[in-house]
Amino acid sequence: MMRSLYSGVSGLKVHQTKMDVIGNNIANVNTVGFKSQRVSFNELFYQTTQSASGPNAETSTGGQNAKQIGLGASVGQISINISQEGGSQSTGNAFDLKINGSSFFVVNSGGADYYTKAGNFTTDGFGNLVTGSGAYVMGYAAERDATTGDFVLLTDELRPISLYSDEYMYTAPAQTMNATMTGNINSEDADFTTTGIGYKAPDLYVYDSLGNKYGVQMKIEQVEGSTTEYVMTPLKIFKGTEEIEDMSAIFVGDGVTTDADGNTAISLTFDGTTGLITTTPAELTINILDADGDKADAFQQDIVMDFSTLTCYGSEYSVTAEKDPLGGGKAVGNMISLGIQTDGKIIASYDNGDTACIGQIATATFANPAGLEKAGDNMYSSTMNSGDATTGDITSFGETMSSGVVEMSNVDLAAEFTDMIVTQRGFQANSRVITTSDTMIEELINLKR
Fold first, then answer.
1. Mean pLDDT confidence for 176-180
2. pTM of whole model > 0.70?
């Protein structure tokens, strides 16, 4: 039989394989995170009918090249175009992620780690971040510190990322420890001069250690005959609109006076020229007491109130008392939203103004990412030729990730259709080799007639 028959058959096989790869690439043109493949051919073993010989001076003959007949082609390599990044597609979904770089998301399915570029993640019934096929997205989980109540990342090992576990759904309350009284006192305000009123009563809102909100009503009364001297006294404590009769507030500090009934007060004096407060020091401590006169159980910490910015101008009365941003206390925080930063940290926002990092998505790099094997479901597995995975947070690799975006397939349709034409012609040419060889054999057989 003619060698060309088998060469043609081998050509048909390799072009068929190439067409299979092209078809798979085109089929996945819209698959998230898909990396296209490319086929390379190798020539098959050559049959040597005459070895090469060198020139011979004794016989005065020149050298001759080897005479070899090729036996066709074979598939040399099916490589993954893994380094070329696909385009970005905006989705608006906070859990859709795209890696801006060469690293991979780490996922776990059936107890084994896999790697993927497809960041179209979702959540399961237990609040875990998962792929569309149910593989867990891996990273660094957070746990609540028993002392501070803050969340701390556990970076000792990779764990499944949980977004909605019970401990992440709230943040702990805190008692108010710092407050500020600001604004302006106008001596000509009608309440100071109206018979039967004679004072203003701003409220200071504070939180106890259990997150309950209370209002401490302050009384600011003008000293008779003076436009620059006032007395401030705590009056009542409210919870919502209800007065709490078994709780009271007292002032503690320099300049605080106490009457026979245990009521405390502090003088507020202002400069008659500048309108600025002259009371020194311009701060005091507020203690919340129970019915027995002891510190209330949920108010064991002192509340320090600063009133150094009060003024006494001729403008409208505008005194307000509020908790400071730092040490101002807070209610129990309930989770209202989640977001993922460019470093992979998952930030939860709460209705009390708290934010907390409840996890971080990890990524992995390889010495030879092209050596990874496709495992289906947009996942890859490591091999001996890819090297072991180096895992960490994405910033350690000098990369970032984008939220609300996924990486599209890197298939180039123009190149694929061009390769399809070339492959079709190659297949066609090899089929002609077979038919022509068959015709030649037929002619040989016909010699007998």
1. 92
2. yes
